[in-house]
Design brief:
Blueprint: H1 2-33, H2 35-38, E1 42-45, E2 48-52, E3 60-63, E4 66-71, H3 100-117, E5 139-141, H4 142-156, H5 160-169, E6 171-172, E7 183-185, H6 186-195
Antiparallel strand pairs: 1-2, 3-4, 5-7, 6-7
Amino acid sequence: MRTHLAALRMLLVFTVITGIAYPLLVTGVAQAAFSGQANGSLVKQNGKTVGSSLIGQNFNIVKNGKDTGKPDPQWFQPRPSAGGYDPTVSGASNLGPNNTDLIKTIKERKAAVAAFDGVSPDSVPADAVTASGSGLDPAISKAYAYEQVARVAKARGLDTAAVNKLVADNTHSRALGFLGEEYVNVVELNLALANLK
């Protein structure tokens, strides 16, 4: 009986330490030191949450409060998403590079992007036609961002140089100076575009 009581006391002590005290400590440190990241890296405009810088989203034409599914030429477009940027269905298409369905889809996307942006299909970057592994990635290549500048500037009646500068200002460098590639977060870029006077 004595052994059982000692084991029960240890269970209660470790439950309090690992189940209550430690999570509260970690949450407190995260809120104090990394509040934005701990709360989901939310992006706000005029005090209203419009998204997260960690999750991509579609920038489609909205009519009568409904998404038409057609990309809006006034916004920079993200890369395709296998799950439609729904965080509950994160994942890739799982189609291999030789899959005929994937090859056909990429050709169709390339033609659509080229027509939408007014460029040659040969100049369309790979990330404009392929989804990321998570299907939620908000990052696009610099090449894809700059490809869209002329269309966005024309649709908004802005100077192309101003929109080019906006892309340059929102380009993130490689991690640690050598890991990965430079990229543009399309959610942050479109927020800066919305705030451009």
